[in-house]
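Re: your question from the hallway

Yes, I did run it. Sequences:
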Amino acid sequence: MINPATANSKNIILELKNIDKWFGHVHANQDVSIQIENSTIHGIIGENGAGKSTLMSIVYGYYQADKGSIFVNGKEVFISSPVQALNYGIGMVHQHFKLVEPFTVLENIILGAETGTILENSLQSARKELKRLEDDYSLNVNPDSVVGELPVGIRQRVEILKALYRGANIFILDEPTGVLTPQEVDHLFKILKSLKKQGKTIILITHKLREIMDLTDNVTVMRQGRVINNKPTKKTNKEELAELMVGRSVLLSVNKKDKKIGRKILSVNNLSIIDEKNIEKVKNISFDIHEGEIIGIAGVAGNGQTELLETLTGIRRINDGTIKFHNKTFDNSNPINAKEIRKNGLAHVPEDRQRMGLVTSFSANESGILGYQDLNIYKGKIFLKKYAILKDMYDKFKRFDVRPANPILKTSSFSGGNQQKIVLVREMDQEPELLIVGQPTRGVDIGAIEFIHKQLIELRNKGKAILLVSVELDEVLSLSDKILVMFDGKIVGKINQKDADEKTLGLLMAGAK
Amino acid sequence: MLEYFTIFSLLIDSTLRIATPLVFAALAGLFAERSGVVDIGLEGKLLGAAFAAAAAAAITGSAFIGLFAGIICSVFLSLIHGFACVTHKGDQVVSGMAINIFVAGIGPTLALAWFKLGGQTPQLSGDARFSPLHFPGEEIIANIPYIGLIYSEILSGHNIFVYLAFILIPIVSWIVYKTKFGLQLRAVGENPEAVDTAGISVDWMRYKALIITGLLCGFGGAYISIAQNAGFIRNMSAGQGFLALAALIFGKWKPGLTLFACLLFAFTDALQARLQGVAIPGIGVIPVQFIQALPYILTVILLAGFIGKAVAPKASGIPYIKER
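Structure:
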């Protein structure tokens, strides 16, 4: 904790004192106090639902605190709207960008900050100002590009520009790296450092420990709506932060023994997939998966991974090439039947669990048997065996640490991580020969990630095959035995895990090789 | 040659007349949908304005008071739509449809109660109607071949509403693309969150757009009952509100293209009126029912296949609810 007596000697630009916020019965923020020093990068770290985003929403005026006070430059302020926050120099870069896609960068920047009725005047003065900001911060954004056509990394810079244009001094960034490639992350970090050098203050909300260690000067850890600790980043380390976040010690690296691979389970030969818009999404790819190995597919989202997964699981048609699973060969004229192939030992954890993995309006036990409802343990002659299902689900939920372990609740009332566990236990419990799993830990807390990773490794150690697709590079790196990199529908790299590192993979993912 | 040209001129002449309410309604719809509010209640607003205009004109004998009453009625209906869909985040299609049904019933009912003419208003004449404007020197120029026809049939002799509708196109374009209001309007229909975080009230923007929608529908409806026709009769808008909505989609929510679509629909309508009972060489007389169906068949074909990718304003139809 920063001692109030010494705090005065530091230059505190933003101070939160005893902030409290309730949403119905949820105590989202509980007596939160944080001091943020001028021209530093301050990290706020915590699991999903720890209250980070709520706290920041209070700071930039989206919500109002029930109790507590906010001081900017030592003066108490009451922030009732985002516009007012900007008046105090507080700007926000949202996790989901608030940009109008068909508009140009320039139009987006002046929206709400127009100088008069006629647009042209505002556009011209904004163009000049933008040029100056460009020169100062080297953001590399063309003001006349249409935002909808820009890559995510550049859209984010537009958000930063928007805040700069409105005169922000304090920038709040909410999970800014979730959607970026490693190269884009590097560029963002460079921009943030140059903002800091120019005297701006940055608040970085994240659940990624590495970002905190690389970038921040001070860090605040939050758990269950409370501040657990405030520290200079130099005086802490990843392990300590993880423990503070979760409230128990966490194993950050995956323990994995070498294992001899067995028979070939799946072999993909010269596979091509064309989507509904007649675009070739997967271009002539080939690879094999054996028993007892995890093949990881790395790549920025949208480079054909989704289509590949959907084709392997029988949701999408093969256009060219063959897929061989066990002894059966599938191709364009002999498509994979999703139900058939599941019976033959292929299980699928889809990328988008809420849309494809679960029916969120079903109760958890109904979601937990989806696709397996015909198994004899679940199905009687006419009706489902309600009691047997509930009992089985309760056991499974206990085993997979689904919280709460109550299969009667509605699926949507579980948190993202627990929903994912429901899907995982459903698919993994049948001990499939091949598990195809997309984004297993997207939006999942660090504690649950640890658990899911352990389960996947265990399945591999039992001699089963796993195909893992993830945009989280760390995850692919730590779990896979072999890594394939997809870019623009092609496999641009096949690397053994031992020879892989983040930089090489990052370059491959960006299509630089 | 001159004979065909005469037919052509007359066709264009009636196209312009028929297109006018479509243009008003389509532009009205443009404001609503650009702001993110789907408005299938255009039909009801046209009809409501037509009734209010005719009723007020019949009682006061003044076309201008009629027009004013039409606008008031239409804006009021628009505000009801706003209250249901913007303030209370209701379903926009349901609310629009409710307005259509409500107006279709209440108009003739009130007419019956007030005028006792079986659900109509009395025939209007004189100052109670807007009459065509005639340009100076029409008789003299009319005798010159071709140019005379163009001047007297196509340019001159229309109602003030017809001219107003066409002047509106560049004005609306300017408002939508060149002003601050237009920028915010387009933004609120695409991404209301961006507008909200920029410090502009989403609800107030949508109300402003809906008021303009009501205003324009008021003009369109008044034209139908006290300019194009001479009084209100049951269901006299005859689906033009829906046709305007189709024109708006066909025009990709852009004023110029929307005008083109309105003219196209109006032209097929004018054509069908002309083709009724006319023997076409080699085919003979085509049944009237088929010819009358032409505009609608065309609409279906155009909407189904020929317009390419029409991308609606992204937030259109979705009530804006601030996320928790």
